[in-house]
Amino acid sequence: MDETYYSLAASCAIGMEELVAEEVASFDGRNISRSPGLVSWEGALASGYSACLWSRYASRVFLELESFEMADESALYGRSREICWQDHLDLDTTFAIDCTLSGKPLLTHSQFAALRLKDAIADNFRDRLGRRPSVDTNAPGVRFHLHIHDSLAHISLDLSGDSLHRRGYRVSGGPAPLKETLAAALVALSGWTDQPGEVLLDPMCGTGTLLIEAALMFGDSAPGLSRKRFGFMGWRQHDASLWNTLVAEAIVREEAGMSQPWPQFLGFDADPAMVTAAKKNLERAGIADHIKIRQGEVARLESPGGRGMLLTNLPFGERLLEKEEVALLYRAYGRIARQRFPGWRMAVFLSSPELTDSFGLSWDKRLKLYNGDLACRLLVGTVPEIDDQAFTWNLADVGNSDEFVNRLRKNMKKMQKWADKEGVHCYRIYDRDLPEYNFSIDLYEKWVHLQEYAPPGSVDPDLATARLNHALQGIRDVFGMRRDRIFVKTRRRQKGSEQYQQRESRKKLYEVREGGCRFLVNFTDYLDTGLFLDHRPVRIRLAGKVKGKSFLNLFGYSGTATVHAAMGGARSTTTVDLSATYLHWTRMNLALNGFSSFAHTTIKADCLQWLEQNRGQYDVIFVDPPTFSNTKKEHRVFDIQRDHVRLLTLAMARLADDGFLVFSTNFRRFSLDPGLERSFAIREISKETIPFDFQRNQKVHRCWEIRKKSLGTG
């Protein structure tokens, strides 16, 4: 074996130098040194070959041919022309030159420096052999690397040829794929123990790169074994016998590694295209029998049992609105991990360091790494053994009190007993029970939302204000609540779409629960909070009937029915609304529950116009339009009483033959056109959909279930 020692170097992404240095030591490297993005060492040719074959983290491997100080710009050409290039390539070997600069380089243009080295090589061959080899920048026989730091030039042979992250198994990378070298580093830095009893689970696996790299590590498979060519193969001093020996040894190691008992490798992704691509990559890598990949949302993630590691490269959004939705998806992931994977190790790689705290977890390690030029973080920790504690009310005993406080306490005891039994967290506790206290009071988890109905002009404004202040004090006394958890709005008779228009712009959202779902509510900016409490039974009813079906939500508002449908197992959901704000709210609610956009579409459109143009078919349709709305831009006016026949006729044309449509309205004077019953099978379900906490107000909404008449009422 050739024991000539060379100056060798391996480039890598910043933050991975220590991993590469550990590898180099195993390749019999000596005098190892590290600098940002580069590990240098001395070693025999076998050390350089081993780095090409075995390094999981290096991008390229270089063997230095010459280094020299440059007194001026002409020195690069002059000194390079003196090198015996015939020792490294012949006339029939194509070549290419890459150049990098650092420090205060004597030559400041990398392309010009590369051109001067190319001229030196060409002129050297002309001087000695009368003609020159050709340049091929795409697939050269050998590739040289020129690095100039200040006035020092280093000329090296690129042993790797192509970047080492290209293992050869990737059939499809998908959008913004994770480089294999970075994926391997994430596996190593996560602390995954690769023991047979440990599970490695990637809940957002994309094309499976993390799982494949982990499996190759466990199977002791050299990452370069699948590559057909390296840069040194066109080098005149290439030792083919040495290379073949190293490859043979690697094959023996791989056979032994692949035959041992394997841990579970599990991957999920919401995008079916990514799942298909991942399976193709597994087949190409030869490890399809060892990794299971399925389509699945984070919302449906379940523990396979035992203990293991959750490791994933998280999706990210670059636009502001996308980033808000991504932060909520991270929050959902952290919550689901706490609920279903207590005691597991967890590592997440994210490209938005400012979202580190979105998961609600404490991290043992926060490592800075780079994905290309993008500064990222790898967060590593242990999922806590206990889940979030549910909020419960402890009512205070305020002694002898007035009629309003007594009524509030009486209502609350009754409602709390019901709510605890049914698992309801947001509900109405007072609805204008006393004429003098003309309020509705709703509990949203640990917050109170009080809606004052504007008194008639005959009532003294000072008296109305005094009653409101008295009620607020009573609420604080009964619930032992801080003032900043009580939100007050005054409801007046609304004109047009006023109830949907913005009142303030605090943009503060609070998370609440309903029927296994989580929702974001806004207590300040709009008259309504984003969660209509009287529609709770309707949403839960829909959730129980949509499994495996397609769901359409017209006038989707904040998408609460859409989230329930998704949680109920809908195959797909489509939410249509004219408001970009509400559609963003819908996407945030979906993300908060662990759902992505792949099966859940939001469409900004006028619902009537969209129904006229759309030709899709849906198994379940929910229609809950406003009583009245208008659009300034198109000068269109929607009136529920006038337009409901057209609306429902168009919607029923989009309904599958065996499907059903639920239509609801809060318009108290609404009258369903009797002509609709001649075309469709209609059953009013209003009584079935009025919740317990709205029993005093049976007219809060009306609701119908509509089917195609040929199939009967079912």
TrEMBL record:
Recorded superkingdom: Bacteria
Lineage: Bacteria, Pseudomonadati, Thermodesulfobacteriota, Desulfobulbia, Desulfobulbales
Main location: cytoplasm
Enzyme class: transferase
InterPro entries recorded: 23SrRNA_methyltr_KL, RlmKL-like_Mtase, RlmKL-like_Mtase_CS, RlmL_1st, SAM-dep_methyl-trfase, SAM-dependent_MTases_sf, THUMP_dom
Organism listed in the record: Desulfoprunum benzoelyticum
CC annotations in GO: cytoplasm
PROSITE patterns assigned to the protein according to its UniProt record, in alphabetical order: THUMP (PS51165), UPF0020 (PS01261)
Annotated catalysed reactions: guanosine(2069) in 23S rRNA + S-adenosyl-L-methionine = N(2)-methylguanosine(2069) in 23S rRNA + S-adenosyl-L-homocysteine + H(+); guanosine(2445) in 23S rRNA + S-adenosyl-L-methionine = N(2)-methylguanosine(2445) in 23S rRNA + S-adenosyl-L-homocysteine + H(+)
Protein name, entry field: Ribosomal RNA large subunit methyltransferase K/L
